[in-house]
Amino acid sequence: MRYFVLCADYDGTIAHHGKVSDDVVAALKRVSASGRKLILVTGRVVDELTENFPELGVFDLVVAENGALIYNPKTREETLLAEAPPAAFVKALRKRGVTDVNVGKAIVATWTPHDAEALEVIREMGLDLQIVFNKGAVMILPATVNKASGLTAALSSLGLSAHNAVGVGDAENDHAFLSMCECSVAVSNALDVVKDRADYVSKGDHGIGVIELIDKLVEDDLNGVGKKLTRHSVLLGHDEAEAEVCLPAYGLSLMFAGSSGSGKSSAATGFLERLAEKGYQFCIIDPEGDYVEFSNAVALGGK
C-alpha cells in the first residue's frame, strides 16, 4: 500500500453549502475500513464543525483553523499549534466597521473586502500576522501557520509521512497542504490555479469528486494516477545529449552492476542521496559493508 492516509478539505470539497452528504460519509467510512487513516484539513473552527457535521468522528484527526489547531474527534482533545492574535486586534477590526468577525483559538476570520482593513490593522499594530484567502473568506493567522504546518504535525502524531498521503481540496488555501502530499487531487469545482497544480482532477464536483477519488483509492491504491507523479522522480544522471534521466521514487527495483572501479558505487550513492533528500525511505542490501557510513541509512548487522 502506497497511501495510508486521505487528507481532505471541508468546504467546497467533502461539503457542499456547508453540509456533507450521507453518500460521502459512507465513502469516507470505506477508507477507514480499508485500513487507512482520515484527516480533515479545514479553515473552520471546531465548534462550527461539530455543529454542522455530526459524523465528524469518521476522521481520525482534524486540522482546524487553517493549521493552527489539531482536534481528535474521538477524545475531543485539542492541541493548539499557534498563539491567538491579541484581543486588541479584533477590537481594532470592529472599530473599523468589520462586524462579521469569527474568532477561534488562534484564527480570526472575516470576508472580503475586509482584507484591506485587516492589513491596515496588522501594519499599525506591527503584528507578525498573515492574511490567507479561501475564495471569499479572509483568514488572519500567525505568519508561520498554514494547512501544511498543521498537517505535518497531525501526520507526525500518527507516525506517518506526507509520502503516505493523498490530499484533496478546492481553494487557494489548500495549495500548501496539497503540494506536500505525495498525490494531490482537485475536485472539478476547484479554482483553476488549484487544478493546474494538482496531480489529478476529479470528473465530479464537491463530494461526488471525493467519492470518485475514494473509489480509485480503495480499488487499486491510485495505481493509475501514480504514472502522473513525475514531480517525485529522482535524478539518476544525464544521457549523451545531457538530458536528465529520472526514475520513479516508488515501486522500483534497481540494480547497479559493473566491474570493480567502474563507478557503480558512486552512482548508487548519488541516487540514494537524492532519494533521501526527497524524504523517502529505502533499504540497502550491502553484503560488503560499503554503505555502513552512509549518513541517511541505518545499518543492521555487520561483518
Helix and strand sequence: EHEHEEEHEEHEEHEHEHEHHEEH
Radius of gyration: 22 Å
- Strand percentage: 15-25%
Sheet having the most strands: 8 strands, mixed
State the helix count. 10
Order of strands across the widest beta sheet? 5-4-3-2-1-10-11-12
Strand segment count? 14
- Contiguous low-pLDDT stretches (5 residues minimum) are none
What's the overall average pLDDT, rounded? 91
> What is the global morphology?
globular
What's the N-to-C terminus distance?
33 Å
What share of the residues lie within helices? 25-40%
**What structural class do helix, strand and pairing data support?**
alpha/beta
Protein architecture, described:
By secondary structure, this protein is of the alpha/beta class. The chain contains 10 helices and 14 strands. Strands 5-4-3-2-1-10-11-12 form an 8-stranded mixed sheet, sandwiched between helices. Helix 6 links the parallel strand 10 (165-169) and strand 11. Helix 1 (22-33) runs parallel beside helix 8. The longest helix has 15 residues, at 206-220. It is globular. The mean pLDDT is 91.
What attributes characterize this protein structure?
303 residues, alpha/beta, eight-stranded mixed beta sheet, four-stranded antiparallel beta sheet, 10 helices
